[in-house]
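Chain X:
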Amino acid sequence: MRKRLPGKPGPLEVPCPLTIGRLARAAGVGVETVRYYQSRGLLRVPVANGGFRIYPAATVHRIAFIKRAQVLGFTLDEVRSLLDLEDGRNRRAIQSVAQARLDQIENKLSDLQRMRGALSDLLHRCKQTGPAQACPIIETLAGGSSPA
């Protein structure tokens, strides 16, 4: 038996009852991922009923939320914070989490641009030097000089 989730985007059909294996399949993740998310406090562990744990269908959407947040670069700790704010009422807190992530991304981009410039310069210098001279890339990596 399959149940369509009301009010959710897309034609997602979820098998019922939703055991951990069916949940993982419906969410496109492994059972280990579901258990890991549970251990990190991102998903609740339902009480066993008749020897099986039955998950609410909304858990599939919660996993999708987690995966989309990871694609945007959020850590699982940040995802947990966002899930705590999922109702959307505390916009300042949501914005704070998102701004902190954006600041980290900007810092990484600056670092990557600096590394790109240094490596580009080293590569250019390596191409310009003859075999009688030390390779600037190797020399820099060996600690003989610092990158530009």
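Chain Y:
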Amino acid sequence: MPSRRQSAAAVVFVLAAAVGAGPGAAQTAGQPAAESPAMTPATKAPPKAAAAAKPAAARKPAPRPAPLPLETLTVQPLEPAGPKRLYLSDVALPHIVDGKLHVIDGDTMRYRGLVATGYAGQATLSADRRTLYVATSYYTRLSRGERTDVVDVYDAGTLAHSHEIVVPPKHAQALNYKGLIAASADDRWVFVQNATPAVSVSIVDARAKTFVQEVDTPGCWTVQPVRSRPNAFATLCGDGTMLTVTLSDDGKTATLARSEKLFDLERDPLFVHAEADGDTLWYVSFAGVLHAVDLSGPVATARAWPLVRGERVREGWRPGGYQVTALHRSSGRLYIGMHRKGGEGSHKNPADQIWTVDTTTRRVLARTPASAAISLAVSQDARPLLFVIDGLKNELVSLDPAAGMKVVRRMPQVMETAVMLETH
């Protein structure tokens, strides 16, 4: 029996022989290996071939590519705004310090631009649609530190920042609703809703670019400019009244006039969202009662009509959502998001239908599919589109009222937590 050393030597010998042999050159262990054909002079590489292989160091380096030209960042100017340009306010709750206003071409549903709105910024257009105002907060440590509130002013045509106006650090840090910032009919004043939680309105002189004064409006919410009197605005109050505030010519003093009770907060409260047509504000109640509030006099007056009648009362049809109505002013058509089986606490439900109401006759003209709308806005041109936020899919949708609210286009993945739309 061979020793371990002999066995190991035999294994090494066999392996060495196998490596040296070409295919089919097997040999018996313990026999001397024949010279491999690969090692014979006849099979060695020709001298010319060997000479052709030059060492890597002797090769010529490849030429260097020309450097890329330096890029200059530019901003593409926006095309002129049409009636279907959209401004979509997004409070961006997952990162609320970094809100945004999406600017979208509603005809094509293409993204056109973005305006930063800071911490819970509230945005609105001027009455002449040339200027964009954003009331917002900035903190020295992003989400903490010293707070500064400003009204940022942008050119609505180019989205370029023009200037800022510092205001008291009290602006309402809330979900976006129309009426939390508003411009007067002559674009002299910007009214900013405050909440600390004490309620007041900051008066900003847009022409002088300065804060003027703060008007206390206890128990009242949202600002509705009086179109026929640019120095006046109204605000909806929790006791069922409306408060009308009239400024002096310099804006430094104000007189307040309260209306009679216009609605019953306990029995049937109003949605705070209103659609304006001149001095008339159109509100709808939680139970589906339409209210027309007239601001033309020294105090507000109102009339009301129920929209939900007969069998639809038994089916529980009610308005729901955030920006629950949209008014096409020239036709007098009011679009309302309605849901069935409504009741206490259902006032934020997405719509099952959109009801089209003639504000002259107060009749419901059509009941059409709603794409789960929670917010509505309509373009003001001769062939309008209705734009809605689909509350189930979190998408922006354009609908054609002339075609029974047929879906024209959908735009997914454009928003995070948006509930307010405004058309140009």
